[in-house]
Amino acid sequence: MKIALMDSGIGLLAAAAATRRLRPDADLLLSSDPDGMPWGPRTPADLTERARLVARAAAALRPDALIVACNTASVHSLATLRAELEPGIPVIGTVPAIKPAAAAGGRVAIWATPATTGSPYQRGLIRDFAAGVRVTEVPCPGLADAVEYGDEEAIARTVAAAAELTPADVTDVVLGCTHYELVEEAIRAALAARTGGADLRYHGSAEAVAVQALRRIGAGPAPELPRTGGLTVLHTGRPSTLPAAALGYAEGRLLAGQDHGAAVGR
């Protein structure tokens, strides 16, 4: 079993680690685009071309499924990637977990990139899945970049700024960018101070997309299996290794089979 994941950078680590935990026997293929990142400021057409390049590089190695582990790429490029690769390779997109966050009927904050915050795409998800629920969209400028480069000072600064924009009575927090899941502990700490230690519910997408990828190929979770799965890394189509910044996160060290030093934000 081989499952590919794609993103502009290391935001794919969260879903890759979730897949590794669910199926230790699966071979993982991580295809990112350091030559073309960040994708966020690009036009939808330009972003889609970068996504196609990264997806084609992964598809050439014949994975059983491809996870688009990037919210922005899923918004703009998912239909194109599916048209090009399916039915041969199932393509699974990443959607902010607004539906499960709103299901309890609490007060929801959605942390997302500035490009996604207030976008028709996100507003549509809120309309469809959070009608009647109080939702606050929280832009997090610079947070994804800080996570990408493992910049602890910038992570602390940008998380603190987003926490200040989050209502103190919030009950549920959606991590609406795959990078944010890598620093969930830092976000939890900042919001605990903001909310007086309230027991908030956090909603990411990593495990959900991993489960969906397995379902699409007729498999299921089997975390008890021995870890026999390999790891292949492509950087803009070139064989490579995990970047140094990835090893600053627990997810990256899990994928590398290492565990040294404290994870940024963990």
Tell me the layout of helices and strands.
Elements: E1 2-6, H1 13-22, E2 27-32, H2 44-59, E3 65-68, H3 71-85, E4 91-92, H4 98-103, E5 107-112, H5 120-129, E6 134-139, H6 143-148, H7 152-164, E7 172-175, H8 184-195, E8 201-203, H9 206-216, E9 231-235, E10 238-240, H10 250-256
Helix pairs in contact: 1-9, 1-10, 2-3, 7-8
How big is the Rg?
17 Å
CATH architecture of the largest domain: 3-Layer(aba) Sandwich
Can you tell me the CATH class of the largest domain? Alpha Beta
Q: How much helical structure, as a percent, in the residues? A: 25-40%
User: Can you count the beta strands?
Assistant: 10
Number of discrete helical segments: 10
CATH topology of the largest domain: Rossmann fold
Shape: globular
Query: Averaged pLDDT, please?
Result: 94
Alpha carbon gap, first and last residue: 30 Å
Model regions low in confidence, pLDDT < 50 over at least 5 residues: 260-266
Count of spatially separate domains = 2
SSE string, helices as H and strands as E? EHEHEHEHEHEHHEHEHEEH
Arrangement of strands in the largest sheet: 4-3-1-2-9-10
